[in-house]
Write a structure and sequence with these properties.
- The protein is mainly beta.
- The protein has one domain: Neuraminidase (6 Propeller).
- The protein has no helices and 20 strands.
- The strands form 5 sheets. A 4-stranded antiparallel sheet has the order 1-2-3-4, with no helix packed on it.
- A hairpin with a 5-residue loop joins strand 1 and strand 2.
- The radius of gyration is 17 Å and the shape is globular.
- It starts with 19 loop residues before the first strand and ends in a 25-residue tail after the last strand.
């Protein structure tokens, strides 16, 4: 999607594999979606999927990011842990935090030093956390009973953007820095997965119909939106939701972002 013109361009389509959640490579040349528990890349000019070797990591889900230098991909695996993969060699980043705790990755800091993730405990409570990309101590950013998701760093590295039900039963967009939490949207729709543009000019996100529980797949009237200086701009209406735009998906120049739609045929 070209945010200046509002024109979208088809890069890849398939009836054989369910692709989700494209990242955009820092060099601007590749989109990195997941599918069938694997990670792939496809040229932004179109073409076929190329599998990215993950070094024996368990099957992954649709929560993955690329380091700012493009050398490492960080993935969330179905075993509940986070892994870093560099040149096909994997290492586990996450810690053992007790039975039932799961890591869901969403962001990497502009310096590449810190990962932002959602931690879900055995009671299915979710909070925003960070962890050093090299591995280390988990740091809670939120610690409450509200349902939080989609934790992603802003371009300044100070704010972490996320969605939460802390203001109402309909998830809205927020950002947090230290003890300061700011609400960014307040409307009747259910707003998920805020993705700040690299230049800070806009936030792309997905918006579900009012009353939607969670962020399900295969929903009609899912809207891709931009939040620009407090104003909402409707970009596209798709059949989708889960998998449409879960992860950072802006081009390095903030001109384009990538998303997935699941048309019914």
């Amino acid at each position: 999607m070209d945010v200046r013109t509002g024109v979208s361009r088809l890069v890849f389509a398939s009836q054989e594999i369910l692709v989700e959640a494209p990242n955009w490579s820092p060099d601007g040349k590749w989109l990195l979606p997941n599918g069938d528990g694997k990670l792939f890349r496809v040229s932004v000019d179109g073409g076929e999927l190329e599998e990215i070797p993950l070094g024996g990591v368990p099957p992954i889900n649709n929560d993955h990011v690329v380091s700012p230098d493009g050398e490492t991909v960080y993935v969330s695996a179905e075993d509940g842990h986070l892994y870093a993969v560099t040149a096909g060699v994997a290492r586990r980043v996450s810690n053992e935090r007790g039975a039932g705790f799961r890591y869901y990755l969403h962001g990497v800091s502009p310096s590449g030093s810190t990962l932002a993730y959602i931690g879900m405990d055995s009671a299915r409570n979710t909070n925003v956390w960070t962890i050093p990309a090299a591995g280390g101590i988990d740091v809670p950013v939120t610690d409450d009973e509200f349902a939080d998701d989609g934790a992603e760093f802003g371009p300044d590295g100070e704010w972490i953007y996320f969605n939460s039900e802390r203001a109402s039963a309909n998830a809205q967009l927020f950002r947090v820095a230290g003890d300061v939490v700011e609400q960014l949207t307040d409307d009747e729709r259910v707003n998920w997965f805020p993705h700040p543009a690299p230049d800070g000019s806009a936030i792309a996100y997905v918006s579900f119909p009012p009353g939607t529980a969670g962020h399900p797949a295969d929903v009609e009237d899912v809207r891709v939106r931009l939040l620009e200086q407090g104003e909402i701009r409707e970009i596209a209406t798709v059949f989708g939701g889960q998998g449409t735009m879960n992860v950072p998906s802006w081009s390095p120049d903030s001109r384009f972002f990538a998303y997935v739609a699941y048309p019914v045929r």
